[in-house]
């Protein structure tokens, strides 16, 4: 599957990059310092999103009665981003995060479930932001390609609903909570879902941080859009960027390359954006993420030196 994903990314990027007119990527009527200011702010916001994501992860762990120092989670999150986005490895960044945080909580199943649930919050926050964007500008849904965003958001909600039913039902995922083999990881996810249902305050805190995280990321992409000098409605950024973020997690490309840029081109073109401009926004999005992920190199190199507590499988 790995080589096929690489072929898809390379093929899509080759097609899309060929449509870039590099002369149009220089914003007209704006000074170089102004352009660089947008770029710098975008990078800062992308870095800030990592801290918010670590905070969200911490709140998920609180649901499991597994408090972990914030500085540990920040280091683990950056280490995971470094592995997932920078290193040419098949080892996912989430695998690194699970391995590292299990040293703090003393249970790999809890560590696994915390990462899964933290990821799943995006299935709620992203469609919610997209709905707000469409509420601000209902005409966006009627653009020639607006249906793609609507379909992406609707599909995400449906998938999330199915996952929630399976993971939250005591007769489905719940029956694995007492298992001692690999199925206990499924049971751990059930425990987390069940506790969030019973502890609405904790669930609300996780959801609020999930929304804040996505807002910070969308703000970083807003800066990328203005770095390129692309002019589109602000509501379109709020409606379409979450749709792209949902689509790029599909396991058909490498780090969303090609798929992300193609989605941006499809959604922004009816708003007057040139294909090359939309592709450049996507590449800048990835470049900012890559640059911030490089900061995780020290955390990846030294993070494994934390002491390993005795593991509690229950």
Structural write-up:
With 314 residues, the chain is an all-alpha fold. The chain has one domain. 71% of the residues lie in helices and 0% in strands. α4 packs across α5 and α7 packs across α8. The longest helix is centred in the first third of the chain and has 32 residues. It is globular and about 60 Å long. The two termini are 34 Å apart. 45% of the residues are buried. The model has no long low-confidence stretch (mean pLDDT 86).
Task: Reconstruct the topology from this structure.
Layout: H1 2-17, H2 32-63, H3 70-85, H4 93-105, H5 108-120, H6 122-136, H7 146-168, H8 184-198, H9 200-228, H10 234-247, H11 259-268, H12 275-294, H13 297-302
Helix pairs in contact: 2-3, 2-5, 2-9, 2-12, 3-4, 3-12, 4-5, 5-8, 6-7, 6-9, 6-10, 7-8, 7-10, 9-10, 9-12, 10-11, 11-12
Features:
single chain, about 325 residues, mainly alpha, 13 helices, globular
Briefly summarize what is shown.
The chain has helices at 2-17, 32-63, 70-85, 93-105, 108-120, 122-136, 146-168, 184-198, 200-228, 234-247, 259-268, 275-294, 297-302. It has 314 residues and is an all-alpha fold.
Characterize the quaternary organization of these chains. Answer: single chain
Number of helices: 13
Structure class: mainly alpha
| Helix percentage | over 70%
Radius of gyration: 20 Å
Mean pLDDT across all amino acids: 86
- Give the total of beta strands: 0
Strand content: under 5%
Which geometry do the CA atoms define?
A: globular
Number of domains: 1
Distance between the termini: 34 Å
């Amino acid at each position: 599957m790995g080589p096929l994903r690489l072929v898809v990314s390379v093929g899509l990027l080759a097609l899309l990059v060929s449509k870039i007119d590099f002369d149009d990527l220089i914003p007209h009527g704006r000074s170089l310092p102004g352009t660089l200011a947008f770029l710098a702010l975008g990078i800062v916001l992308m870095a800030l999103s990592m801290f918010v994501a670590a905070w969200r992860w911490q709140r998920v762990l609180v649901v499991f009665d597994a408090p972990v120092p914030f500085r540990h989670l920040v280091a683990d999150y950056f280490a995971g981003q470094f592995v997932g986005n920078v290193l040419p490895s098949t080892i996912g960044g989430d695998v690194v995060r699970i391995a590292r945080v299990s040293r703090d909580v003393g249970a790999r199943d809890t560590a696994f479930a915390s990462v899964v649930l933290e990821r799943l919050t995006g299935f709620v926050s992203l469609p919610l932001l997209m709905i707000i964007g469409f509420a601000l500008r209902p005409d966006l849904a009627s653009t020639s390609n607006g249906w793609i965003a609507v379909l992406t958001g609707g599909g995400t909600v449906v998938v999330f609903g199915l996952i929630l039913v399976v993971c939250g039902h005591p007769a489905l995922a719940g029956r694995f909570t007492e298992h001692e083999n690999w199925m206990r990881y499924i049971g751990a996810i059930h425990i987390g879902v069940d506790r969030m249902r019973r502890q609405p305050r904790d669930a609300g805190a996780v959801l609020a941080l999930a929304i804040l995280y996505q807002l910070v990321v969308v703000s970083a992409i807003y800066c990328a859009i203005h770095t390129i000098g692309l002019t589109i409605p602000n509501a379109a950024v709020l409606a379409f960027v979450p749709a792209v973020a949902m689509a790029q997690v599909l396991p058909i490309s490498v780090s969303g390359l090609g798929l992300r840029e193609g989605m941006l081109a499809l959604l922004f073109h009816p708003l007057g954006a040139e294909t090359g401009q939309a592709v450049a926004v996507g590449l800048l999005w990835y470049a900012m993420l890559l640059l911030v992920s490089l900061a995780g190199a020290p955390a990846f190199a030294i993070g494994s030196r934390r002491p390993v507590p005795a593991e509690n499988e229950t």
